[in-house]
Every structure is written in C-alpha cells, then in structure tokens.
Design brief:
Largest sheet: 7 strands, antiparallel
Number of strands: 10
Distance between the termini: 136 Å
Length: 187
C-alpha cells in the first residue's frame, strides 16, 4: 500500500526551506544597529573629549571665564575710570555696584525684568564694560559717569543710574537721589 499522495510531494515537504528565517534576519539587523550605535557613540565620545579639552584650555587662559578682574581693570578703576566706582541706583530701583577690585553687581528691575548679575569686570572697551561668562557680554555705557548738579549720573544698557557726588563705599546701600516732581500750587 502506498501512502497518500505522490512520493515526489512527500520528499519536497521533508526538505528544509531555502533562505533565512525571520528570526535570523531580525538578529542580523539588530547586530548591525548595535555596531553602528557603538561606532557613533565612540566617535561622539572622541569629539566631546576634544571639545572639553578646548574649554578647559580656554578657561585656564582666561578666555572663557574670569574669576577676578585683571590688573588693567583695577588700574583703570583707580585712575581714568574712577568715577565708575560706587553704588548706583535708578529711578525704578535697579542697582549697580562697582568696586575698586573690579567686581560688578547689577540688579535690573526695569520694564518687568528682575535679573541679577555678579561678575568681575573683564575689560573696558571705550566707556563700555565687558564681562566674560563663557561668552563676552558687553554692557553699553551710552553716558559715562558725569556730574549733574549735586549728584553723578551714568546710563548703562539704557538705564540711567544716579549716585551722590560723594560716592558711598561700594557694598553700602546706595543713597537714593531725590527726584523733583511738580507740585500743583494751592489756590
């Protein structure tokens, strides 16, 4: 007695399929992705190591961040820029404190801003003040310190600051400068 069907068909059914299984294809794809991922991470790590070395070199050379004002700044604040030293206040309550050692403290309370900056002055560029905090920030002094009546005025970043002509010691609260307002005459 013969089994069902043609013997040729039985032989074909018993032979394994030609080609790769789905599992083998998936494993190969995952392996290729893993190799590419490791290569990309390795290249990224080399790039970051190189960039980090550059940042460290800039910091040690004083190029990216300074921790204290250079001698040129302190000399300027003792000489040609001595009028910058002192505690200043604006009409809206912003304060600016510049010390002889070159440290600068600015609290802006203008136009809804409330921002505080405490950095050493890196340089003067004309009348402008530069600080370095990984980038160079220039504070534009459009009107350098000058005497107006019994007080001094300076405009920095669009804010007019005032202080008593006899500058208080930096770090002490600034002396508010009285402002004159028109008072209607009584009839």
């Amino acid at each position: 007695m013969q089994p069902y069907g043609n013997p040729q068909q039985q032989y074909q059914q018993q032979q394994p399929k030609k080609g790769m299984s789905t599992l083998a294809i998936v494993l190969i794809v995952l392996g290729v992705l893993a190799v590419l991922g490791m290569g990309t991470c390795g290249l990224g790590a080399l790039f970051l190591a190189h960039e980090a070395k550059g940042v460290v070199e800039q910091m040690t050379e004083g190029g990216a961040l300074i921790l204290s004002s250079p001698p040129e700044v302190t000399a300027a604040l003792a000489g040609a820029k001595k009028d910058y030293v002192g505690s200043w206040v604006s009409a809206k309550g912003s304060t600016l404190d510049i010390r002889e050692d070159g440290s600068l403290s600015l609290v802006k309370k203008e136009h809804g801003q409330n921002e505080t900056m405490n950095f050493p002055i890196a340089a003067f560029s004309g009348n402008n003040i530069e600080i370095k905090a990984f980038v160079v920030v220039t504070m534009n002094v459009t009107s350098p310190p000058h005497t107006v009546g019994d007080h001094m005025e300076m405009t920095l970043d669009g804010i007019t600051f005032k202080r008593d002509a006899a500058a208080p010691t930096p770090g002490e609260p600034p002396v508010p400068v009285p402002t004159t307002t028109a008072v209607p005459k009584a009839k």
